[in-house]
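Sample entry (168 residues):
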Amino acid sequence: MLLQTVNHRARHRVARTRRGIALVDVIIGGVLLAVGLAVVISLAARALRTQTDGEKTMIASWLADEMLNMVLVEGPVNYRKSYDLHDNCGAPYSEFDYDIDIVDQGMDQPFRVTATISWPGGTGRRQVQVQTLISERGGDPFQPRAPLEIVDRNNRWYEMQNKDQQQK
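Predicted structure, serialized as tokens:
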């Protein structure tokens, strides 16, 4: 009988130890699961923020291109007279502001036109800035503007690629 009592106590102690180890395993598993979920949620939030920044940068680039095209269509001198050079882009892009800088570089020189689009992002303001040269129309202001020769951008790109490969 004494032997059975000792055996029973020993088994009871082992069972309690096993239950204690199982409880520690569950706690450690829960902590690891929580850390893993926190990392996944953090990465997802960062990916979403990066995607949103990319979308806003792309929209700002489109708006800058549109502004430069408007200056090209109207002509630098007429654009200054007809439109605001600094303003908000308006709905649905009301979070974006624009700034058009038109610099006359002198007689027979093209105007230097800079379009800057800015928007709130992160800790401050972000911006996209695009600059080009635009000549004023000579003669009839309603004369269609077309290049004297056809511009073949694909052919130019392939020529540049061939030159780069030959230089290597």
